[in-house]
Design brief:
Layout (H helix, E strand, L loop, with lengths): L2 E6 L5 E7 L6 E7 L7 H12 L3 E5 L15 H11 L4 H16 L4 E10 L1 H12 L4 E5 L18 E6 L7 H11 L5 E6 L16 H18 L3
Parallel strand pairs: 3-4, 3-5, 5-6, 6-7, 7-8
Antiparallel strand pairs: 1-2, 2-4
Helix pairs in contact: 3-4
Length: about 230
């Protein structure tokens, strides 16, 4: 089970977080950014999962300013509340909060000093933005939403960036994916993978959208990416 943490927030308040680290000494850090549904069981499980893959892993509460500790259901009222809460965020302010947490993780004794960012859905957008402005080793985005609305930062992406898109995703449409690919074309630090038979949330074990084969492939790609990025 991940350890619950409270990180002093910029300007006051506290950012909730969940943390797990390997027992093998200082390890690369990984900031995990949640979907619009908050720090759900899936996200908490990702903390332990990636710790098992060798990362000092920390999932942070992106909603700490507007709905601290929110954990919305994937259907019904939870769905509506998740969208309403997402719409209260200032994306650029939230990316600044991510950077604040990157520095909090970097100085922990369990962390080697190298920090990656990995996000899903809403967090996938912030992972993309992080690659353009934060002091990180690299960034990974799983089915990041609304990237096509922030193409003005594409030329500023200076950190290694890995994007995962799903062919069946109605929230990140293929025309949107094409726009993102065109904007990032020519950036040798960016790699983009498509999963034609997978849908939004394809790594969520136990849910209908889970695609075990593609999830395993994607995680292998994350590990290979982080290994390469750590040597740059």
């Amino acid at each position: 089970m991940p350890e619950r943490l409270k990180i002093p927030g910029p300007g006051g308040g506290e950012i909730g977080a969940f943390f797990t680290a390997p027992d093998s000494g200082a390890s690369p850090g990984l900031i995990i950014l949640h979907e619009i549904f908050g720090v759900t069981e899936f996200i908490r499980n990702r903390v332990d999962f990636f710790a098992g893959q060798g990362f000092a892993s920390m999932a942070i509460d992106l909603y700490w300013r507007v709905a601290p500790g929110a954990d919305f259901g994937y259907e019904g009222q939870g769905w509506d509340d998740a969208f309403a809460t997402r719409n209260k965020l200032d994306d650029d302010q939230s990316v600044g909060d991510v950077g604040h947490c990157v520095e909090a993780l970097r100085v922990r004794p369990e962390c080697s000093g190298d920090v990656f960012v990995l996000g899903y859905c809403l967090g996938g957008l912030y992972a993309y933005l992080a690659a353009s402005r934060l002091d990180i080793r690299g960034s990974i985005s799983f089915h990041g939403v609304r990237l096509e609305t922030r193409l003005e930062v594409a030329d500023a992406v200076s950190k290694p960036l890995q994007l995962h898109f799903c062919g069946l995703d109605k929230w990140v449409t293929q025309p949107a994916v094409a726009e993102v690919k065109a904007a990032l074309k020519g950036n040798n630090g960016v790699e983009i993978f498509d999963y034609p038979k997978s849908d939004h949330g394809f790594t969520r074990i136990g849910m209908d959208v889970y695609n075990e084969a593609d999830a395993n492939t994607a995680h292998d790609r994350v590990l290979e990416f982080s290994s390469r990025a750590a040597t740059r």
